[in-house]
Amino acid sequence: MPRKTLTCLVALALTLPAQGADAPDAQDTPEGLRLSLPAEALLDTRPFEREAVAEETLSLEEAVARALENNRGLRAERLQTAIQGTFEAQERAVFDPELFAELEISRDQSVRQLEQIGETDTVTTTRRFGEAGITQALPTGTDLTVSLRSSRASSSRVDTPQFTTRAGLSLTQALLRGGRIESNLVRLRQASLDVEASEYEVRGFVEQLITDVEGRYWDLVLADAQIAIFEEALAVARAQLDQTERRIRAGDRPETEAVSARAEVALRRQGLIDARADRARAQDALARLLQADNGGLWDTRLEARSEPELERYALEPLDAYVALARDHRADLNETRLRVQRNQLEVVRTRNGLLPRLDFFVTLGQSGYADSFSRTWRDRQGDGYDLAAGLRFEMPIGNRAAEAEHTRARLTRQQIQETLANLEQLAIEDVRATWFDAARVREQIQAQKETVELQEELLRVEQTRFRVGAGTALAVAQAQRDLLESRLNLTETVVRFRQLSTELLNASGTLLLHRGIDAPGAERVEIRL
User: Hey, which bits of 383-496 come out as E strands?
Assistant: First the structure.
């Protein structure tokens, strides 16, 4: 597959005579000009380009989609939301009804001394007891219990066993501590806020993941462009060396001219080796973000086919990005949820300052008979029980509750300060990124003009060399300057594209611009 280059942005017009690009034989080189370099120093070896098992061409959109599907870090982050959801379910279960049952069998034997008749009396009593019911705690601070109890008692002194059945209702209502719905629902609301906060945390992770994927993708594009530039520069340097040595053999140039030409070939080859090493690192960095479970991308050659397309990415005014960051940054919204959670903690601990005063009432009806069924039908010896009252509890000094409430208020103040500081840091981040993007975009046009001027200067030096007025050293210096300006332009173009993504990430709108739907897109308003 052909390498993607940025020739549409950095066109190079190098015109050289149509001559061979191979290095001259050693026997044709003047003896005094031979360098102490190995023969393979002029060969185009590729130490960083192993033979790939497969080759795959990716657009930027395809790379992002694959990362969202395969990235292991994102999978782990998504599990955190599910884990937080279990805490919410656990707090909701506090108000679920609960069944209870109890079964008991007991036997006791007592011996009494009957002094009047001088004998002992042994009494054996067997008791079987069972109870079942349902109890529930309500957010209003009310505890309800409905139960059914039955017992069977038999004694060695009575021939007929006695059965007792009781159906009862118990109600306890908190009047002070625990008597307000908002304080009783604090734990549940906090768990719900934790789930929502985890969604914002995942959103922030996804935005950073996309920023990293796009950044590594453009690093790969840059590396391919640099390789193409160095390969072209190496071919030009070899052609210049070939022309110089033929001019030396013809007697038109001094023998010292070949030294600078050979040095230029060696420098271009060094640059090409470094560029290929950079590409290998860039591909591995991108492959790690896109890897599936099988890890098959390590030995796959990735080819990037997307172009920067600078005209699609204009900079909006700085104030617009700052305003968007205040509303949409995931870390700010997550911290706002933490502030709200701590405000709920103040509500809970304020409730703990109150004394405990509960009103309770218990009502039951009992039946007594010589069989279980008759306790319901005949209800011989019907009975009932009724109890009502107040229960008061107050720790002396109440220091533990006071300390807990004070800690909650200080923690709320601390996290509010943290939020204010985080907003300032977010604004600074947006402004710094915007300034960098604006500076880099302005440099692109200036660097394009520099490339054009360096191309013209190289043509002048080549013309002067052909007519004998210039030197190979001047040509080599012009080639070097042109190469550097082309590399700078390529790096600037790619860097602006990366900064455009970083600016959208800093403003919290990257997912919106990429058309990716994820929880946590709305601004969080702090409320009780």
Answer: 383-393
